[in-house]
Amino acid sequence: MWTFGWWTTGRDQAAIDLFETVHNATNNEIIPGEISYLFSSREPGESKFSDRLVKRAEDYGIPVVSLSAVHFRPDLRKQDREAWRQAYHKEVLAKVKGFPARVVILAGYMWVVSPEVCQKLSIINLHPAAPGGPAGTWQEVIWQLLDQKADKTGVMMHLVTPELDKGPAVTYCSFSIQGDAWNSLWKEFEHELQRSSLEEIKVSFRESQPLFAKIRNEGVKRELPLIVQTIKSLAAGEISIKDSQLYDRTGSKLSGPYNLSDAVEK
After folding, report:
1. How many C-beta neighbours within 10 Å does residue 213 have?
2. For residues 104 and 122, is the Cβ–Cβ distance under 8 A?
3. Which residues lie closer than 8 Å to 178 by C-beta, 6 or more apart?
4. Residue 253 contacts by C-beta under 8 Å, 6 or more apart in sequence?
5. Within 10 Å of residue 228's Cβ, how many Cβ atoms?
6. Structurally, what CATH architecture does the domain formed by 1-121 represent?
């Protein structure tokens, strides 16, 4: 059985929904594999959401490992963040060592992992842009798309490396943000730019700017399907990760990330 690990901080309902969606996909054999363990960076009592998530995993018979990041050597975290990161994740690696997992999914995991974790595990994470697209948080990504007057965007799963958000893309989907359904929103945005600078629009509208909101909504709709389809592709052997390289079913090295746009749109 192809197995994968699940790392989370469990900070909100979205983290629970994501876990439920992927677990259901394994249960219904959409994903031909199973979650071998759940690691939580919170311990019981730290958050109602992480407590609920851990309870769900236990109800499903999935082993749970917890180590509170907040309570782990807080003095060291204040003095030397990098030393703390290495010490904390050394403990995490020791705790999850016995569980089989071909890949680890970071699913709302709110801590930057250590270089040692990147070397010892194949870890993938979601980024709210297409390969080659903007870096940063989803908010930063969308403002950059608006500034660039981009014609498309997307969502990708990328390999986690010591350099934050710079790991190579493993899978992705893309979609157009220009054309009929978008024209009126772009025109409205252009009118706003004639009256105000981009920075002023950011402050005035924040995430409620209509074009910004639509791009965000279209991206969010595709995040869960991309995560499920990525794990499915890995579990089914359509793609595999070895030594930070991506291979196809025949064992040939892929020249770029695996395009899952068709599967995600369906």
Report:
1. 15
2. yes
3. 151, 152, 186
4. 245, 246, 247
5. 21
6. 3-Layer(aba) Sandwich (3.40)
All structural domains of the chain with their residue ranges: 1-121, 128-152+170-266
Q: What is the pTM of this model?
A: 0.90
CA gyration radius, the chain: 20
- pLDDT in the model for residue 161: 86
128-180: per-residue pLDDT in tens? 999 999 988 899 999 999 999 999 999 999 999 877 667 889 999 999 999 99
pLDDT on residue 243: 83
As a whole number of angstroms, the distance between CA 203 and CA 208 comes to 11
- Cβ atoms within 10 Å, residue 11: 17
As a whole number of angstroms, the distance between CA 22 and CA 36 comes to 13
Residues of the chain with pLDDT under 70: 164-165
